[in-house]
Specification:
The structure is a single chain. The chain is of the alpha/beta class. The chain has one domain: TIM Barrel, CATH 3.20.20. It has 10 helices and 8 strands. Helix 3 packs parallel to helix 4 and helix 6 packs across helix 7. The two termini are 19 Å apart. Bound molecules: cytidine-5'-monophosphate.
Length: 235
């Protein structure tokens, strides 16, 4: 499906950043049919959450498995084949050429690969300390271009980078942005946040939202309010 054709409701991905499968399943039950797309990251995946990918996919939900893979090509390929069998829709890999190439070749028909260009917690000093000579913005640009050439399906970036990444890769790749906060909600440890409406207007195709939903008194109402804001921004 091209990014322009995604239904507004399906553009919200709820991050199930919860300590275990029981808590995650309870949240999925509370959200009910309001939410169609979930993200499972390190915390839940390594706490027995991988079978939940199959279970959610089997019940008609989509799952973004945020494992940020990076290894030698053969290992990445075999890992991606296993993730594809779980029924996940999105999988993240770090945007190194060998890794992206191996992931794209092994992903099969349904799984889509998202590249993480430069982690948003990194600044120019962190890159320098890690041995890079490029600035964050130059490295994001170079890696987004490489991702596109290698056939990667989408890019994870901050909403602030979305417009620039679109200019580099056009509008065929999926842009997935965390760092989204409804007006008035706590930012937590996110430093550069945008409201759902502004993130969509900036070119995000999917919004990943965790705490403003899973920690809300009424998670379903919080999710539906964000979806309503997404719908308005798309008009
Ligand atoms: O709770 P919150 O809405 O901040 O959750 C955002 C989710 O997106 C978390 O699962 C976080 O790990 C993830 N993420 C992020 N920034 C990135 C990449 C992923 O916040 N650059």
């Amino acid at each position: 499906m091209k990014p322009a054709e995604i239904a507004p409701r399906d553009r919200l991905i709820v991050a199930l950043d919860l300590p275990g499968v029981a808590a995650a399943e309870a949240m999925v039950d509370r959200l009910g049919d309001a939410v169609t797309f979930y993200k499972i990251g390190y915390q839940l995946a390594y706490a027995g959450g991988l079978p939940l990918v199959q279970k959610l996919a089997g019940s008609g939900k989509k799952v973004f498995l945020d494992l940020k893979m990076h290894d030698i090509g053969n290992t990445v390929s075999r890992g991606v084949e296993s993730v594809a069998k779980l029924g996940a829709t999105f999988l993240t890999v770090h945007a190194y050429p060998q890794t992206m190439k191996a992931a794209v070749e092994a992903r099969g028909e349904r799984l889509k690969i998202l590249a993480v260009t430069v982690l948003t917690s990194y600044d120019d000093g962190d890159l320098h300390a890690a041995g890079y000579r490029l600035s964050v913005s130059d490295l994001v640009e170079a890696r987004a271009q490489q991702a596109q050439v290698l056939g990667v399906d989408g890019i994870v970036c901050s909403p602030e980078e979305a417009a620039r990444v679109h200019k580099i890769v056009g509008h065929q790749m999926h842009l997935v942005t965390p760092g989204v906060r409804p007006a008035g909600s706590a930012t937590g440890d996110q430093k550069r946040v945008m409201t759902p409406g502004r993130a969509i207007a900036a070119g995000a195709d999917y919004l990943v939202v965790g705490r403003p939903i899973v920690e809300a008194a009424d998670p379903r109402a919080a999710a539906e309010a964000i979806q309503a804001e997404i719908s308005q921004a798309l008009v």
